[in-house]
Write a structure and sequence with these properties.
The chain is an alpha/beta fold. 30% of the residues lie in helices and 27% in strands. It is globular and about 50 Å long.
C-alpha cells in the first residue's frame, strides 16, 4: 500500500520501495537520480521556458508534471495512472497548485495510448511499474509504434528502465525502439553500465538528434554522475538483441533485495 510522510517534502513509497519524492515548496527539486536525468532531458529538448504538450504514462506523486509546470509554464499535460487509489491519495495530501493545465486519467497506460490522438504530444514520459517491474505489455514493438504515432514528428520519448548485467531486458528495449525511432540515447551511471549493480537507465528515443553534449555535461555534474551513450557505442551495447513482440513480452526483471529500498 502507498505511504507518505507528513511534511512539506513528501516521500511516497509503494510496498516499502521509494516511488516518488515531492517538495511542495520547491517543485523544481528532483530528489531521485533518474528523475533528475529526465529533468535534464526536459530542459534541453526545447528552448528554455517554451510550453510543450506532455503525456505521462505513470503518475506517482506527479513529480515531473509539477516540474514541467514550473519550468515550462503554459504546458498542457496528461497524466495516465492505473491506480485510482494512488491518485486519490496524492490529490488529498499533495494537491496540485491552481493554474497548471494538468489532466489526470485513471486508465491502463497502453489502452489509453492506443486511444490517444495521433501527433498530440511533444514529449511522452513512461515511468510505469507494476510493483517493482515494468509491465510486459509496455515493452513491445506494438507499444513503441503507438508511442511514435502519438508523438509529433519532432517529439521525444523518454522511459525509466531498470536492469542489471547481462542486460537482456535493457538491450531488448533498445532494439525495440531502434526499430521505430531513428535516434536513441541512454543515460545511466557508469557502475550500472559496467554491470556492477542493478539500477535505472533513462531511454531517449526520437526522430531528431538530441543534445547529447549538453546532457553529458548536466549528468556528469550531478551528485551521482551518469554517462550518456549514443551512436555507435549504443549500437554496440545493444548487440544482437531482437525487438520484443507482444507474444514474447515479459516484465522487466525483479530488482534484487534492497536495490530500491529506503536505507
Amino acid at each position: 500500500m502507498p505511504d507518505v510522510d507528513r511534511a512539506r517534502a513528501w516521500l511516497l513509497t509503494v510496498d516499502g520501495a521509494p516511488q516518488s519524492y515531492v517538495d511542495l515548496d520547491a517543485p523544481t527539486h528532483l530528489e531521485f537520480e533518474y528523475t533528475r536525468r529526465l529533468g535534464h532531458v526536459l530542459d534541453t529538448l526545447a528552448d528554455p521556458g517554451r510550453a510543450v504538450d506532455v503525456l505521462h504514462l505513470g503518475g506517482g506523486a506527479l513529480t515531473l508534471p509539477r516540474y514541467v509546470a514550473a519550468t515550462r509554464p503554459g504546458s498542457h499535460q496528461d497524466v495516465v495512472e492505473a491506480d485510482r487509489g494512488l491518485l486519490d491519495l496524492v490529490a488529498e495530501h499533495l494537491p496540485l497548485p491552481d493554474g497548471p493545465d494538468i489532466a489526470l486519467h485513471t486508465a491502463d497506460a497502453r489502452a489509453w495510448l492506443e486511444a490517444a490522438p495521433a501527433d498530440s504530444a511533444d514529449v511522452l514520459i513512461a515511468d510505469v511499474f507494476g510493483g517493482s517491474r515494468i509491465p510486459a505489455h509496455l515493452t513491445t514493438l506494438a507499444y513503441a509504434c503507438e508511442a511514435q504515432r502519438v508523438l509529433r514528428p519532432d517529439g521525444v520519448y523518454l522511459a525509466n528502465l531498470a536492469d542489471a548485467a547481462p542486460f537482456a531486458f535493457l538491450r531488448s528495449q533498445l532494439a525495440t525502439f531502434a526499430e521505430v525511432f531513428g535516434e536513441l540515447a541512454l543515460i545511466a551511471e557508469p557502475g550500472v553500465l559496467r554491470g556492477r549493480r542493478f539500477g535505472n537507465a533513462v531511454l531517449i528515443a526520437a526522430h531528431r538528434p538530441v543534445d547529447t553534449a549538453a546532457l553529458a555535461r548536466l549528468t556528469a555534474a550531478d551528485a551521482f554522475p551518469a554517462r550518456v551513450e549514443h551512436g555507435a557505442a549504443l549500437r554496440e551495447f545493444t548487440g544482437a538483441a531482437a525487438p520484443v513482440r507482444d507474444a514474447d513480452a515479459v516484465a522487466s526483471p525483479e530488482p534484487p533485495g534492497g536495490a530500491f529500498g529506503i536505507g
